[in-house]
Amino acid sequence: MTKAKQLPFGGFVAIFQDMMSASSPSSAFERPWKAVVDDLGVDPQLGLSGSEAHRRLLEYGPNQLHQKSAKSAWAILLNQFKSIVVLLLVGAAVVSFALGDLTEGIAVLVVIAINAGIGFFTEIQATRSMEALYKMGSVSTRVKREGRIGEVPAADLVVGDLVVLEGGDVITADLRVIEASKLECDESALTGESLPVSKRPDALEAKTPLADRRNMLYKGTALTRGSGLAVVVATGMETELGQISSLVEEAEEQTTPLEKNLNALGHRLVWIVLVITGIVWGLGVLRGKEMFLMLETAIALAVASIPEGLPIVATIALSRGMLRMARRQALVRRLASVETLGSTDIICTDKTGTLTENKMTVTRLDLSGGSVERREGRWVTDSGQPVEWEERSPAAEAMKISVLCNNASIDPGGGGQTASVGDPLEIALLIAGQEAGIQRRALVERMPEVKEDAFDSESKRMATYHRQEDGFYVAVKGAPEAIFETCQSEAGAQGRRPLTEALRAEWGQRNERLAGKGYRVLALARKQVQSLDEDPYDDLELVGLLGMVDPPRSDIRATIGRCHQAGIRVVMVTGDQAPTALHIGAQVGIVEEEGASVVHGRDLMPFAEMTDEDKARMRATSVFARVNPRQKLDLIALHQENNSIVAMTGDGVNDAPALKKADIGIAMGRRGTQVACQAAHVVLKDDSFKTIVHAIQEGRVIFGNIRKFVVYLLSCNIAEVLLIFLASLINTPLPILPLQILLLNLVTDVFPALALGVGEGSGRVMQQPPRPRGESVLSRRLWGWITFYGVLIGLCTLGAFSLAHYALGMNLEESITVCFLTLAFSQLFHVINLRGRNSNLFNNEVTRNPYVWGAFVLCTAILLAVVYIPSAARVLHTTPIDGRGWTIVLVAGLAPVAVDLMVRALRR
Asked: Is 371 found in the same domain as 275?
């Protein structure tokens, strides 16, 4: 083992020495696993002690690859000067200094500094928010330490740790396999091999290439099937992946589709604005205006008209929204997914834990001679008598099987609490066993587990072999139909008897009845064998059926109702039996009644073979039962072909392809496998369907916020361009000066736009249909409103200047001040126009946004300061105005709001 932090040359020497050493990670595959474990100083039954694991972590460092360092504040600050806006401003400052106008030049430099400061603080907030968000998605690993199985952060793994393996795990260090049951690994990320590779503990030849090392598991790969145990032989940069990563460069960050669209919009506007400003400058010069003043005006106008703040405000809106989602238990792993969430119109959801509480409780056992139930916290027979859990009785035998055929663990914790690790279903079985006085730890000490045939989604069953004096006891559990077909006898009260066709049909009816009442049903079976090589599923003895209840979440029916109101269709796609699925579907409101149609997985033909009639029928179906992961892909394709935006939930390793294919893949953070979580776009930390709806609502709010500030910025920019353009056409004095334009660009553009970008949206957002797939940020309708508002503000501002200068006879400086303040306040009041179409003027998502009021107060204070503070007024060429001037400012500034009110009234 080499230490994590050494000089480069020393590191290479250490690695070379390790390769020559018998205990080197690179040679672990050559030797028997017992020799590897002995060299690492670990007991294969107990694992490392907590103190030893801590010592090794301090000595060799965390199990992490070299990570990309956080973006420095200096780099973010430097980025603020890499834009066409800054170049235009620098040009204006140079011209000012060249012509001896020091005040003007210094003022422009101050503008550059303020512009950079605003950009810096907004971008660093967005960057740090995103960095904090990604830290929330840490991976944990199950390890055995001091004889107990628990979860530790992957970064805390140390060489010598015993890792408990299960299908769906992401491998977080290099491991030497000790035990394996149907263990298969996807190593495509490391070797390029597309098919899963089976793993076994046997030693290999010394020259075996990495891709053929069947007894090794490597960091960055993923288990697709099976279970097992392995020991850590390398961590961090000492792993195969770590050595590869040190040789490659990190990929550049990619922008989201929305950012690309906004950047493209900005670049198109640049050329349009440059043409208009060129015309303005030319007209001014031809009309005899001062050439330098017109050049400054043209530059200021170009700067004010280019919406350079669009991408950064969009990033802030997205990152703030992602943080809000994270606080609501939805971790969005990709920024671009936020854009897609708001368009989702189909949610394909599983049942257990998402629609239900995921608090499984064993409440019924159906046995050959009758049944027993758990009522009011105690187990009773059909006649109401307490159950006597006598050893070898059918009831006790059923509980024994469910406890033995189990990979979960329950250990006493501190404060009287218990620590449980494993699948919620298997934890429920262990709890039921404890209630019956059957403890797994004591049982396994008496009947040690020596082999496991792991559960997989295709066979729907699992078996474990346990050593006894007269051979091996095989405990089997699984889906009833999978177990029934392998049973040849049943365990009756009087002993074993043949399972006739009549009895088989009776058990099938029992299963249907339990499933129809909403039970999650497992079949339990057993057998005695003399050899570990015997098939665990051949000639089984059926012991009984075990029924578990997992009640629907209390809020789920109302939540699904919200989806229907929002135009979102909910489809249940579950691996449970059809009667169970239909029962829960009716309870939660996915279907109207329990007699609704349900499609069984066996009847779901491949998408490529479906006729148009088949597709229409499948799209109309809301409950699918016994669906396998491959069929989930077909259901996604079915709806995507119909131009729907599909969200698909999943938790297993085999769900990963469907999670990738869906427009929004949603993994369960609690019960989901690590592979599923890495493939998904969104991870639910509470596994709740309600959280999915919150995330969709937040996605709609974010997209709506982005539209609001884009409309706001562009309409304000059009107003400024139109004001100068019309003044040049009619040959009036310039109604607003270059530095005043720049100040407005910094004040009334940036702060209100940022406030709109972080709003929490309208309560009506989930009462509207989803946004169509591929709809642009700015539709033709929105471009019409942008033009309307821009022209309206520009005309009102020009009217205010004309009224002050020509009708009331104010001098030019006073008239320019009136025009400057009118344009500023009309833009501030214009924020009100960005409320929802049918919302109240005084109570809406804009007026309820505290950031909007903060921006209004801040901007107003700055505007008053540059008018009434003499030094600022000299630089900006403003002057205090009297009551007549303020009357014009307020009336003309509010005029766009009044006109908007009238237009809304006419439209209604």
From this structure: no
